[in-house]
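chain below, 230 aa
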Amino acid sequence: MEMVTLTTGTGKEFVGHVARPQGEFAGEPKGCVVVLHEAFGVTAHIKRVCEDFAGQGYVAIAPAMLAFALGTPEGVVLPINKKGLDEARRLIEATERADILGMLEACIAWGRGQKLNVALCGYCWGGSVAYMGASHLKDVAACVSYYGGQLAKLTAEAQPTCATLIHLAEQDQYIPLDEAVEALKRYHPAAQVQVYEADHGFNRDDGVTYDPGVALVARRLTLDVIQRNM
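prediction:
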């Protein structure tokens, strides 16, 4: 993977981790996917997600969303444990919504500058960020949200007009599932909502709640909605 440094409209710099397609799609990618990380930063898992999208013919970029709270473009990768989660929550709380939207806007412009349509795909915190970004920014072809914790609140505020796929888990202890599903039905009935017999983080392939069968189904649906709308 390569790293690029992008700048928001307010002059703040951040790093994006980029995976590019090889082989038949190297010269003409199918599109650009902005991969929005979980609370812990651009982990090895998130890099593998980017590489998987690249293997399917997409340019993938994962911005370091914790960069602004730390004042360093590279952000940080936190340990996936209680201490890391507590620190992640502190950093997320210190991150302004306007800065995150500015970061997404810069990523979208970066993809569009390569004459590519752009989709947002996020996990955990990134799942909420993807939905928020698609609701407030232009030039988003598709939005995919994996177990975003703020969906009920966000969908009551605004909804994406692009194709939207939501992945939720029945055993998720971090998200009030019924509240999220009911809010999406009420405010965003066009969204495709998939609920699985799984736990939060079912897609993270190095986590204790990883469910390979569910992750495979979700991946297939994710690639389908992105491909159909690019």
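The two ends are 23 Å apart (CA to CA). The mean pLDDT is 97.
thats it, cya
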